[in-house]
Structures are given as structure tokens and as C-alpha cells.
TrEMBL record:
Cross-referenced SUPFAM superfamilies: NAD(P)-binding Rossmann-fold domains (SSF51735)
Taxonomic placement: Bacteria, Pseudomonadati, Thermodesulfobacteriota, Desulfarculia, Desulfarculales
InterPro entries, per the entry: CoA-bd, NAD(P)-bd_dom_sf
Pfam annotation, one family: CoA_binding_2
Organism the protein comes from: Desulfoferula mesophila
All copies of domain CoA-binding, residue ranges: 18-111
Name used for this protein in its record: CoA-binding protein
Length: 142
């Protein structure tokens, strides 16, 4: 199965290269509850060597890492922004993301926003919509 779809996601080779390059992943909407998908995906990413940066204004720390209220508050470069929020929240996140210039904006399964994708692409940011980062990492790199 490939990421190619009507959402104009990049091909498998591009995503594989991206996942081999990124080191720091900001997870917007990361929950501090171990039963939530965002927590499980972030833990998987940590277990596979990525630095996970929680972005959740309601938490102080998640998975042993300081949590930040928004993308603008994250110190240093961010390679990939992984979005675990509803689709209607993505435009605001995309606007913040283009300011920090990540390599990619990744919208998790069932999350999509064409307006946000277009904005990010205009700024040279790769976009993946409606796909689970954990599933794709496992499929392409395991």
C-alpha cells in the first residue's frame, strides 16, 4: 500500500527518505494519557530514536519531555510537525508551522486540510495527510 491518494501525498521513496533525515518531531496534540493514539505513536517514535517534542498547552511534561504550549514556543529547529488534532484545527497549526520551517507537516489518520497542505507546500514543506506516522514508519523502515 502506498501513501499516494487523492490527497496528493508524496510517494513511498520520498517519505522513506524524509523519515531517514528527520531527528526532531513536534507532536501537536500529544496526550499525556498512555491509552491515547498520540501517546502510543510518540512513544514508538522515541523508541526508534527520534526526539519527540510534546506540544500541548494543558501538560507540563509528556513521555519525560517538557511540553510546550504551541509550536512558536519550541526551542531550536523542528524537522517534522505531526498533527494529532481535528482537521478544523489544522489551518492555525499550519500557519505556525510555516514560521518554524520544518521539512514536513504530517496530518495523522483522518486528519486533512487542503488549505493547510497548499500553504505548507507553497513554503517548500512536504505534506502528508490522513496517514499514521507510526504505521508508515513501520511499513517503510522496518
Amino acid at each position: 500500500m502506498s501513501l499516494r491518494s487523492t490527497l496528493d501525498n508524496p510517494g513511498d521513496q520520498e517519505v522513506k527518505e524524509l523519515l531517514g533525515q528527520v531527528k526532531r518531531i513536534a507532536v501537536v496534540g500529544l496526550s499525556d494519557k498512555p491509552t491515547r493514539d498520540s501517546y502510543r505513536v510518540a512513544r514508538y517514535l522515541q523508541d526508534h530514536g527520534y526526539e519527540v517534542i510534546p506540544v500541548n498547552p494543558m501538560a507540563q511534561e509528556i513521555l519525560g519531555q517538557r511540553s510546550y504550549p504551541d509550536l512558536a514556543s519550541v526551542p531550536g529547529p523542528v524537522d517534522l510537525v505531526d498533527v494529532f488534532r481535528r482537521s478544523d484545527a489544522v489551518p492555525e497549526i499550519a500557519e505556525a508551522a510555516v514560521k518554524i520551517k520544518p521539512k514536513a507537516l504530517w496530518m495523522q489518520l483522518d486528519v486533512q486540510s487542503q488549505k493547510s497542505a497548499d500553504l505548507a507546500r507553497r513554503h517548500g514543506i512536504m505534506v502528508v495527510q490522513d496517514a499514521c506516522l507510526k504505521v508508515e514508519h513501520h511499513r517503510l523502515l522496518s
